[in-house]
Amino acid sequence: MRRNRRVKLIATLGPASSPPEMMERLFLAGVDVFRVNMSHASHELARNLVFNVRTLSKKYGCPIGILADLQGPKFRLGEFGGGRVMVPSGSHFTFDRDEVGGTQDRVFLPHPQIFEAVEPGHMLLLDDGKLRMRVLEARSDRISAEVVVGGPLASRKGISLPDTILPVGPLTEKDQSDLNCAIDLGADWIALSFVQRGQDVEDARKLITTDTAVMVKVEKPSAIDDLEAIVAAADGFMVARGDLGVEMPVERVPGLQKRITRMARAAGKPVVVATQMLESMITSPVPTRAEVSDVATAVFDGADAVMLSAESAVGQYPVEAIQMMDRIAIQVESDPSYSSLVHATEVQSQPTAHDAIAAAASAVADTVKLAAIVCFTATGSTALRVARERPGLPVIGLTPVHATAQRLTIVWGIHAILTSDPDRIQDMVNKACKLSMEHGFVKPGDGILVTAGVPFGSAGTTNMIRIAYVDESGTAYGDG
User: Fold this and answer.
1) DSSP state of 267
2) In Å, how far are 194, 226, 227, 432 from 222, measured between CA atoms?
3) Is residue 343 situated within a structural domain?
4) Which of 24, 222, 406, 429 has the fewest CB within 10 Å, making it most exposed?
5) pLDDT at residue 22 tops 60
6) What is the span of the domain harbouring residue 130?
7) The whole model's pTM is what?
8) CB 216 within 8 A of CB 223
9) What per-residue confidence (pLDDT) applies to 479?
10) What single string gives the DSSP state of each residue in 57-118?
């Protein structure tokens, strides 16, 4: 299933998209990766969703990725008497440990970690930032705050603390249970929510006993402060603009999106741009012009993937939303300015032989005007390095490892194909030519560049480049 674009599309599964027949329609419309939101999916539902994705993958003979998104720590208020109160701006409000029903002056806060960590001057954001309070006094059993922006406040609404580093690990008890479920089901990517620091990623990785890749959702100011450590520790990143825009001024989000995208590309790790990309298509068959521009900007910036959330999970037009994403991406990537914009930020290769070969592969293929770059890869690292260069021609990842092929579905420009390891160099070149032709990337007379590691089957040994031309039977001739 060859796509006519480089950026990948992710769709969140939910009531609108979970039936197998709808899942198939979404895949045919352009979905490369399906997201299972563990905040809402029971383990039984997750098992059914993963089974249906794998069944779809077998039917069409191509890898489809699965991203399991963990809920992360969620902090909520207690109950209000009557369910809802009006909290006036300029008033004082108290959070305490008394479970009695709340009033317009106070409410129960069932999270001792907040009492331990919050300090005077810290901001408290309630109900997705609709209400804002500044801490005046913090004790072990009581927090007094000034209401900066008031409004209606209902029971069990969320509370965010953008200035506070909370003494909590990256995974709650629910997350650990969901993580074990996702690993057992063979999810390709695990997304960690509300990561605060690089150490959180290291701690979470210790609980993962497989080679499942770890994606960090960047959505907290403390994560921005420790971004270099997080980039070093994670396998991929998601710019979670919804929560990031709650905990930070919304005007900072576009710049942070570009910064995270640049840092991820420099590290050779995939980055996903998510949240409210085509929000109006939850209820409308067409997006707003601003939403189209938003998706286009992510593609121009060189993001590996763009993601739909509620649009595909509960929206009325999930297939139309994916088709729109697909059309936007194809149009952007065919724009005359695309190449200059996606390469506007120079990506420095690491001083290693593997990175040098990947950079050289892109340069050589462009200079010689070849039709495709073919990477033999066991772990996916070779394909990731080549994709980081954002070459102007298709990149084909050939791998004998199912898990590697499925992980690469989220990576910019990679068309992953499952195949056995070659026995010798000529076999490698012939296999690359044959599969490139079978999948529609080359025609007789076209040239390809092949990169691999010798000896075959050894991870992390990328050390060779070959150029070959394809004859009418798909066999190589004139390679060197």
Assistant:
1) H
2) 9, 6, 8, 45
3) no
4) 24
5) yes
6) 84-160
7) 0.92
8) yes
9) 56
10) HHHHTS--EEEEE------B--PBTTSEEEE-TT-EEEEES--SPB-SSEEE---HHHHHH-
